[in-house]
Specification:
This protein has 265 residues and is an alpha/beta fold. The chain is 40% helix and 14% strand. The protein binds 3-methyl-2-oxobutanoic acid. Pathway: Cofactor biosynthesis; (R)-pantothenate biosynthesis; (R)-pantoate from 3-methyl-2-oxobutanoate: step 1/2.
């Protein structure tokens, strides 16, 4: 089975919506693979998988470990490694870490949070054959700097035009797609219309070129916090809890294992 390429993602603009989901291991990547175009190994794994309060304290080592696992499970979807906080602080570090990501995880592309401020650096990477997905709007790696998760696009014309400038700078730098997070839907629509590369939204409305959700939010496993924009397609946590409670009850009451689960003499 062929893996989806950056050019195939670009070709979907104005043709069909792009479906992206996060995954952090081979087990779930394999379950999601046939239904999605892109699997993002997001640094959100530091919160949902690792139990931390934000995405800041995760490094290349962990991102590579989880991306390699996802690559082992995904045969069709493009797999993107999300560059963690600090991994692309300057051009030299960014290229070194991107090559490491490619070689050690087998990823098909990387994602970088940042807009016009990161355009030169991203151009340096794309020139060196690294496929890059941009990420603008609400950037979770800015959470400590900005003092929280702030919805973007409410700041009037100056903010809107800065976001459009970001998208255009990323396009010029050679990205194959741009994630736009936590942005007013009317603004995200303008951003999508201002560039030829696909804009993939999260909490940014329907008038963009595709959607991404964090799997543990959309399948109802992450109980700490539920973002307003994340539709829950499964009540995962309560289904799992009921099943484990049932198992525990059966073990405690010597119901499991019954004869059918024993080896024959
Ligand atoms: O880390 C992540 O999962 C992400 C998505 C929210 C786009 O960056």
């Amino acid at each position: 089975m062929k893996t989806i390429t950056p050019n195939a993602i670009i070709a979907k603009k104005n043709m069909e919506k792009i479906v992206m989901i996060t995954a952090y291991d081979a087990l779930f990547a394999k379950l999601f693979d046939e239904y999605v175009d892109i699997i993002l190994v997001g640094d959100s794994l530091n919160m949902s998988f690792n139990g931390q309060k934000d995405t800041i304290n995760i490094g290349m080592r962990e991102m590579i470990y989880h991306t390699r696992a996802v690559k082992n499970g995904a045969k069709h979807a493009m797999v993107i490694l999300d560059m963690p906080f600090g991994a692309v602080s300057d051009k030299k570090t960014a290229l070194k870490n991107s090559i490491k990501a490619y070689k050690k995880s087998g990823c098909d592309a990387i994602k970088i949070e940042g807009g016009a401020d990161k355009a030169d650096l991203i151009f340096h990477l794309t020139k060196n054959a690294i496929a890059v997905c941009g990420h603008i709007g609400l950037k979770p790696q800015m959470v400590r700097f900005e003092g929280g998760y702030k919805v973007k696009g409410r700041g009037g014309e100056a903010e809107i035009s800065a976001l459009i400038t970001d998208a255009k700078a990323l396009e010029k730098a050679g990205v194959f797609a741009i994630v736009v997070e936590g942005t007013l839907s009317s603004v995200a629509e303008k951003i999508a219309k201002s560039v030829q590369v696909p804009v993939i939204g999260i909490g940014s409305g329907v008038n963009v070129d595709g959607q991404v959700l964090v799997w543990s939010d959309m399948l109802g496993f992450f109980e700490e916090f539920h973002p307003k924009f994340a539709k829950t397609y499964l009540d995962g946590a309560s289904i799992v809890k009921k099943a484990v409670q049932n198992y525990a009850d059966e073990v405690r009451n010597s119901i499991f294992p019954s004869k059918e689960f024993e080896y024959k003499e």
